[in-house]
Structure formats: structure tokens, C-alpha cells
Amino acid sequence: MHAWPASEVPALPGQGRDLRIHDTATGGPVTLTPGPVARLYVCGITPYDATHMGHAATYNAFDLVQRVWLDTKRQVHYVQNVTDVDDPLLERARRDAIDWVGLAERETSLFREDMTALRMLPPRHYIGAVEAIPGIVPLVERLRDLGAAYELDGDVYFSVESDPHFGSVSRLDAAAMRLLSAERGGDPDRPGKKNPLDPMLWLAARDGEPSWDGASLGPGRPGWHIECVAIALDHLGMGFDVQGGGSDLAFPHHEMGASHAQVLTGEFPMARAYVHAGMVALDGEKMSKSKGNLVFVSRLRRDGVDPAAIRLALLAHHYRSDWEWTDQVLQDAVDRLGRWRAAVSRPDGPAADKLVEEIRDALAEDLDAPAALAAVDRWAALQEERGGTDTGAPGLVSRAVDALLGVAL
Asked: Tens of pLDDT along 338-355?
């Protein structure tokens, strides 16, 4: 599966700082010091309705991670999956009486277009669950051979008790885990499971649903968590720098995935930091497909909204915060974009070297994009009030905003 084209990242004078970011697993900040190649895995979409603002906010956060690393003169090995077969996708296809493959392809294509418009840097590897199945089956078989998996009526489950580190990502107690498991795709009440929290590794073939050859597992399809484990281990290996996604993925998805990988390899941890973006609400409720309260990037674009303004609306909120999308949020971003473009359109302006360092410092401190935006606002206000004599300043500001914030002026 192919990703989307990369926008050029302008080179800036000097060098950025190492990223200090909030790690869910420790509950506090960690300073990331990758080697020459920083490794990032971000969980992708289930393509039955893409791309709403919650998606966009999440991928914007991890686009900033990439840009901070690139500014430190590192390369970035970024991997993202597409869950192109799963219950929600199949349910939507049945509801709409359309082919599930065509639905997945259509929504994945739309997602690529949105990511391109928003200038999100693409992953090096963009892998669908279906194409990963040949690598998933041996992992499930290995977990079974290790005694970490068991069969129940033809389905194969992972035993969470096989991982002594289970629970170390989300740091939740068993009661909270059980509630979230029921809400987020698990089946804690299924009779016969060794532990209510045990997640599905391989779903035996059901009538009317797609299935694949599972070798000794029998025909079926993979569970949700093992999909990302297979892709991450294949392309990044253990101990990669950041596992990322929305805050609703900390449990069960990232918790379960970490346990799968740790039992498979005997190594800990799967990722050096688990980083999670906040949720976006609309009309007082979390924006989600199940609720249908979605604002789509593609619809805003069709309505003539500049993608740069959409990106500025996202950047105006700290990536870990929960916030609400409103018409005013978008209007503020449109106004800000207009002020910035007017400021850099002049032939000279106030010196901007300090501004570049302010943006770098803000982003290096837990991706504080609102502080970075405020710094650019101050420069633009000075430009409007009294201008300046530095002929290189407008160009430098434009390049810095593009390179570090992904906003083309």
C-alpha cells in the first residue's frame, strides 16, 4: 500500500532541541534521544469514514514529532498501518450494501488526499492489515507455542497473564480495564475465556465475512492488536522511540500490543515512549464515528476552507488537551492565517532569528504548538505596527513556519 507525497521541509539555520514529551507509561515527561534514525509508529485509520477532525488532530501531533526530529538533523523512520479489515468496516459495508474492499479503498484514498492537503509528512511504510496477514499468522502461532495463547471455539486468544508487564502502558486497574475493553472492541463477558481481558488474536472464519488461510490456525482473520505488532516489529523492531495515537488507544490497543510484542521477543519495553493525543468534541460530545458527530477535513476543503487554516485550528490546541471544534475555532484560524501571510508578504521586517528559536523551544517542550503560534503572532504584530529593516526576516519566518509547523504561507 502506498502513502501520500511528501511536501518539502525547508532547511533552517542552526539546529533544534531534543524532544521532551509526556509518556503515558510513566505519567510524566521523558526526553527522547534517538540515534541518527528516530523510529515512530502511529496507529492508522479504520477506513470506513475518513478523515474527521479527531483524526486530523492526532496525525498533526505526530507530524510535529517528525518535524522536531528532522530539525535535530535526524532521519525519521515512520510507520503507519491501515486497519482495512475489521468489524466496524464490515458493519458499515453491510449497512450501506456496498463491497467492504471498495469502501476501504475509497476512504483510504480520501485520507491520503486529506493528509496531502494538510501537509502531513507521510510514513516510510504504510501497511494495510490485509497485506500484513502473512506476517501475522506466524506470530499468533508462536504465541500459542509459547503457551501465551489458547483456543476458544476456534478463535485464538492472547493470555494477558503471560506478560508480567501487562498494565504498564495505561496504568489502569482491572475494573477500569474491563469497562474500557467492553467499550472499545473487546469481549470481556464471553464465557470460557481465561481472563475477561484476554484479547482476540485470530478470529475463526464466520459465514458471510472475509477470511484468509491461517495455516495451523485455520481460516480466519487477525485481531486488532496483533496487526500493529506484526507491522511494527517487521519494520521498526523492539524498543522504537514512540508509539503514538489518540488517547482512546492507550487501552486496550497499545496495552495489548505491547504485551504481545514483549512476550514474542522477551524484551521490554516495546516502545520507549507512549504518546497520546487528546480527543476533539463537537456539541459537547467526543467526535466519533459511532455518534455521527463528525466534521470532515474533505468537506471543509470542498467548502473552500484553506487547508493551512485547518492546520492552524489544530495547532491552536495543545496536542494532549481535549477540546471542542466550533465555527469560532475555524474563524480564528482563518484570521490568524491572513495576518501571518500579510506579515511575510512585505519586503522586510523585524529580525526573526529569535523567533525561530522560540518556535523550536516551544515544540521541544511537549509539542507546545499554542506557544509557538503565540510567538509568531507577536512577530506579526510587530511587523504590522512598525515593520523592520531585516530583508531576510519575512522569508525566514515563512520557512520556519513551514518547516516546524507544517503551515505554508
From this structure: 999 999 999 999 999 999
